[in-house]
Write a structure and sequence with these properties.
Layout: E1 3-6, E2 10-14, E3 22-26, H1 35-40, H2 45-48, H3 56-59, E4 70-73, H4 104-107, E5 116-117, E6 121-122, H5 130-159, E7 162-170, E8 188-191, H6 200-212, E9 217-219, H7 227-232, E10 239-247, E11 252-253, E12 258-259, H8 263-279
Parallel strand pairs: 3-4, 3-7, 7-10, 8-9
Antiparallel strand pairs: 1-2, 2-4, 5-6, 8-10, 11-12
Pfam families: FGase
GO molecular function, one term: hydrolase activity
Organism: Fuscovulum blasticum DSM 2131
């Protein structure tokens, strides 16, 4: 049976024995909106969830049955964005900061402590103390990345390589400006930062798994991968990261933020995709002395 370790920051579900170098993670599906956070926010509970990758952790929760671990955030993206660098601090929402260098994510309000949710709606009516921002990074960001880095390092040492599937979702309308007239809208966008975060054979394997499930797949546009792909993807060191963005309309009602009646079937489809990705990447753990 899979084993689960849970904290206030994340849940880590491990197979009893890891049989593949594939690791799944969901940094934006956290939905633990604490009362004290909601009391600070200017948004209602439904609106604040608009940037959340709702239910993505459930789409991939059968990963341990494929012999792969799943790391899923519990803290919400609106509280702290685990797919940003810890120094991407926004002076428009955090007190006591000098003007930030030009950074399009910070400028749009999507730094490590987000200022807005989807649609540019402000999370707070004022600024946060810098001490609070630093505490969130210390108590939430750092534990998540310690766990993720540990998973990838242990996996690479055991199998000689590691492949992180960084699981996300995208609003249906996110592709409106990126779909040419007459062409079908992609269901999934895979990002490898244009070949820098994953080797071509790994990217091909992931694309083939989604395409084989009947899903339309695009690469790197409009989502090429963010901090996690940039930081952990080191193909030359046999650590590969592929960011996966799935159209939310395939499995959820985006307005009400509830699963659609077809959620179970789509989750089963994702189980098949996970099985296909891991199928050719199974093997016996290497002796540690080989490292």
């Amino acid at each position: 049976m899979p084993e689960a370790v849970s904290s206030a920051v994340y849940t880590l579900r491990r197979p009893r024995q890891q049989t593949t170098p594939v690791v799944f993670a969901s940094p934006h599906s956290g939905a633990d909106y604490r009362p004290e956070f909601m009391a600070r926010s200017a948004l209602d509970r439904r609106t604040i969830r608009s940037s959340e990758d709702a239910f993505v952790d459930r789409l991939f929760d059968l990963a341990p049955q494929m012999g792969a671990p799943l790391l899923a955030a519990r803290v919400p993206r609106a509280y702290i964005d685990l797919n940003r660098a810890p120094d991407e601090l926004d002076p428009a929402v955090i007190e006591g900061l000098a003007r930030a260098p030009h950074n399009p994510r910070i400028a749009s309000g999507l730094g490590v402590i987000p200022r807005v949710v989807a649609g540019g709606r402000a999370i707070y009516s004022g600024k946060l103390p810098r001490s609070e921002a630093e505490a969130r990074i210390r108590h939430c960001w750092q534990p998540y990345h310690t766990a993720l880095a540990g998973l990838l390092d242990a996996t690479r040492r055991s199998f000689g390589e590691a492949l992180l599937i960084d699981c996300h979702s995208m609003p249906h309308e996110a592709l409106d400006a990126h779909t040419r007239p007459g062409l079908a809208r992609p269901d999934v966008v895979l990002g490898d930062r244009f070949g820098t975060s994953a080797g071509p054979e790994m990217m091909d394997r992931v694309e083939a798994a989604f395409a084989g499930a009947g899903l339309r797949v695009a690469r790197n546009a409009p989502f090429a991968g963010a901090y996690i792909a940039q930081t952990y993807g080191r193909p030359g060191q046999n650590v590969h990261v592929v960011q996966v963005e799935i159209d939310r309309a395939l499995y959820m009602d985006e307005v009400r933020i509830v699963p659609t009646p077809g959620f179970a079937a789509f989750r089963a489809l994702m189980a098949g995709v996970m099985a296909e990705i891991t199928a050719g990447l199974r093997g016996t753990a290497l002796p540690l002395a080989a490292e």
